[in-house]
Amino acid sequence: MKRYAGVIIDQAHPSIDKIYHYSIPEDIANKIDIGFRVLVPFGPYNNRVEGYVVQFDDTTEVPIDKIKPIYKLIDTSPVLLSKHIPMIDWMVDNYHCMKIEAIRCFVPPGVRSNVGRKYKKIVCLKTKDNIDERIANIKKRSTYMAAILEYLKDIEQADMEKIASVTSAPPSSFKNLEKRGWISIEEKEVYRETWPVNTSDNIEVPSLTDEQQHAVTKILDKLNRQEATTFLLHGITGSGKTEVYLRIVAETLNKGKQAIVLVPEISLTPQTVKRFKNRFGDKVAILHSRLSEGERYDEWRKIRNGEAKIVVGARSAIFAPFSNLGVIIIDEAHEDSYKSDLRPKYHALEIAEKRCQLEGATLVLGSATPSLEQYNRALNGEFELIELNHRVEGGSLPHVEIVDMRYELLRGNRSMLSASLYNGLKSVLDRGEQAMLLLNRRGYANFISCRECGWVAQCKRCAVSLTYHADKKRLKCHYCGDQYPYPKRCPKCNSRFIKKFGVGTQRLETELSKYFPHANIIRMDMDTTSKKNAHQNILSSFGKGEYDILLGTQMIAKGLDFPNVTLVGVVAADASLNLPEYRSPERTFQLITQVAGRAGRGSKIGKVIVQTYTPDHYAIKYAAKHDYRAFYNYEIGVRRRFDYPPFVHIIKILSTGVNEDALINTVEDLERWLKKKISENLLLKKGLIHIGAYPAPISKIKDRYRWQILIKIENEESFLYAYHGLIDTMLKCYNISDENISIDFNPTSLL
Ligand code: ADP
Ligand code: ZN
Ligand code: ZN
């Protein structure tokens, strides 16, 4: 019997983030279920607040006279699925978040803000009897009324707005016809449009290559047996991974199940979305954060009521409310954007793994450049590894030329374009083909490098490059906190030509138009893509050949398939190499491999030119050879030597405060406390590699100072204890408010 409903109040505050018991009035007793939103009295003044029913109990510790009744159910059906309650508990445990924060992940904002449904007026022709005669008669009185009937004559019903725009008929004409009983006007709910309707493209289904077929067979075998298996589909760029996804999804639907497909960012991968829309039409819902509340709400309801069987979306689509999930596919699975940087700091891959486990679904991680951790898990047998080593239709990977920018400088070329890249662009333009240029600007101005020998200032203890701090004119390591003076001369070659880097896409565009005044150049970066659909517009006009050169930041690196692109240039490969992060080489390798994969996808042979001051760096060399395995082998050695993931876990405790001294005191206090607790516990002591408190690399954001404690722990057991036992105790003991602390496990960035 449902005696008491356990309700989580929809207010994000730690002190009330627990289950409250309410009694269930008779009039809703046979309707109420887990997942319903309810209106309940709360607090001493019985304020009316919203909450979620998460369980039912027969007994309660609350004195019977204190139990209040639920006022009412808010919706006609539950917004949460009961099978997702364990997922919510798991998130609370693993992300140290509040229950309500986890719940809100499953509920689109439009539900909570009651954004409402959209209606349209639909006009129906009531009878076709003598229609031509009637039209002729009415035409003498009103041409508008005649036009409306004419419009409806064959199709019988249509959207009133559409008819009005074609015929220019005013509302009164419609009303008149309705009065005469010739037409009826009905309000009908419509979904807001989230994707331009366009299914005219190639919808032919190609027959699979042997490699693709092998992959599909292996995955479907597990899918049919409902064993929660994770596959790592490692396929080179252009090997046809998307076609593999499409087949798996088709089969999932045949089995009466549903599929979630994640892409890093919808606006950057319009072609992938389009291929799903083309193949599956209205069965595809699209979910991402750029949609309006109303649009998201509509897509969510299509999923909830079973009209949509597939979701293609960004990170947050992992919470799609499917009740019979068959498969989750995560494309470009190495991407950092799958990890949320807002609370709860979930990682979509972790949620996916857990969901698949709980719901007996199959997980497919696809990438041309899996993360070190992912490939490591595959080699350890935790994931099943499937490799696609060939491009479809025997196309070959483009030749990559590494250009040593130090020689360019010696030869007196101070522009951003090497002679090679200039000549390459020139001949592409002469042949009427297209080129893409990548300039990775992120964190650009921060590193120091010798323009003559390519030396980059690095920390002696941590194998990461140092960051220049303009305020103190010193170089700092963000892992161990060591500081170094700004070098007057290069310690390697004694040159005085030491530079801070600072160039951007805008300057590149200016240079290009100077060298190639007749070329049509389009730029894609943060500045040019702030408007809605800007990404799609830029990419589609480039795809149509309206431009010769597309230049941009890492936005242009992913998933694009333009057959006429025969040249790809990486303008400054070092930019991402010298961020103060242990993942820099990995990110650089991924970026070069990905962007190189954009060249030569059609029948013409492609070429890639990589400009760098450090041509001997292993990340650049192996990317140029398209050799993932060699890169992996090298990099995994570095990780082991310097104690980085996957060999250790990192726990980052970031504290912020407006008063710097007070913040430092708190953080140092916390550090002492943690050190003491660790020294008292054998398990923690055994696993601890390092603990230290440092100012965060970005030392102040919005007037709040930032410090962080980094803990490195090896050994899974020690880590789990630290992450749950230790950190939970810390949060309780210190009573720290949420706004001044955040805890992150294996953060994608230490900035
Ligand atoms: P990836 O995602 O691995 O980079 P895609 O799935 O984008 O590769 O495939 C590259 C190109 O090859 C696309 O244009 C796609 O339509 C085409 N393609 C994929 N599989 C086949 C196939 N079996 N036969 C013919 N063309 C294919
Ligand atoms: Zn030097
Ligand atoms: Zn260091």
Number of helices: 24
Q: Major β-sheet, in short?
A: 7 strands, parallel
The general outline is globular
Determine the strand fraction and express it as a percent band: 15-25%
CATH superfamily of the largest domain: P-loop containing nucleotide triphosphate hydrolases
Runs in which pLDDT lies below 50 for 5 or more consecutive residues are none
Bound molecules: adenosine-5'-diphosphate, zinc ion
In CATH, the topology of the largest domain is named Rossmann fold
| Straight-line distance between termini | 52 Å
Characterise the protein shown here.
This protein has about 750 residues and is α/β, with parallel strands linked by helices. It has five domains: about 5-110, GIY-YIG endonuclease, CATH 3.40.1440; about 120-190, no CATH class; about 210-395, Rossmann fold (3-Layer(aba) Sandwich), CATH 3.40.50; about 400-440 and about 505-640, Rossmann fold (3-Layer(aba) Sandwich); about 650-745, Ribosomal protein S10 (Alpha-Beta Plaits). Helix content is about 35%, strand content about 25%. It has 24 helices and 31 strands. A seven-stranded parallel beta sheet has the order 12-13-11-14-15-10-16, with helices on both faces. A six-stranded mixed beta sheet has the order 5-2-1-4-3-6, with helices on one face. Strand 20 and strand 21 form a beta hairpin. Helix 5 packs antiparallel against helix 6 (about 145-155) and helix 9 packs parallel to helix 10 (about 240-255). The chain is globular, with a radius of gyration of 30 Å. The two termini are about 50 Å apart. It binds adenosine-5'-diphosphate and zinc ion (ZN) (2 copies). Adenosine-5'-diphosphate binds near residues 240 and 393.
